[in-house]
Amino acid sequence: MCPNNISSSPMHFLHSFKNNIAFPVCTVHYGCFELFLLGEGEKKIEEKVFSGMSNTSDFVLMKEDHTLGNLLSEHLKMHPNVYMAGYKIAHPNVPELFIRVQTDGTITPRDVFTSVCEKLINQLEMLHQEFTREWELRRITTAGEQGNMQNGH
């Protein structure tokens, strides 16, 4: 469990609220690392074909939140073969992300999901490379300016 667990009593909550005490990120139900590290034998993602609509699947991602949910949902909506995409998190204390995708039938929801994930990974890798390059250039420039100042220039 989280070392900073809080009491779940109503009085503790009211006292903390009244005195503007910040709550720790951890909850009573999950330890700190249980919110983002997979347990033994736990799968990261699972596809469930949704029988209520044609060409529709639900993807359940364990230990994920709104950050990834919104990113994937918005990029899925941009795919030309996607009719509908959305996400939900059933409860804030349960780290499960549900994403539903419906396609036009020319491509499966799984293939669209995989394609969008691969595209996002490539975009994020490019962003990382650009950021690293700019960071290094800034570091070199700053070091050069400091060197010139020390030499009296």
TrEMBL record:
CDD domains: RNAP_II_RPB11 (cd06926)
Subcellular location: Nucleus
Alphabetized InterPro entries for the sequence: RBP11, RBP11-like, RBP11-like_dimer, RNA_pol_Rpb11_13-16kDa_CS, Rpo11-like
A GO cellular component annotation in the UniProt record: RNA polymerase II, core complex
GO function terms (MF aspect): DNA binding; DNA-directed RNA polymerase activity; protein dimerization activity
A GO BP entry: transcription by RNA polymerase II
Domain (DNA-directed RNA polymerase RBP11-like dimerisation): residue spans on this chain: 57-129
Gene3D superfamilies: RNA polymerase, RBP11-like subunit
Pfam families the record matches: RNA_pol_L_2
Major location category of this protein: nucleus
Tagged with keyword Transcription: yes
Keywords (A to Z) from UniProt: DNA-directed RNA polymerase, Nucleus, Transcription
Superkingdom in the source lineage: Eukaryota
Family recorded in the similarity comment: Belongs to the archaeal Rpo11/eukaryotic RPB11/RPC19 RNA polymerase subunit family.
Identification of the protein by name: DNA-directed rna polymerase ii subunit rpb11
Native species: Fusarium flagelliforme
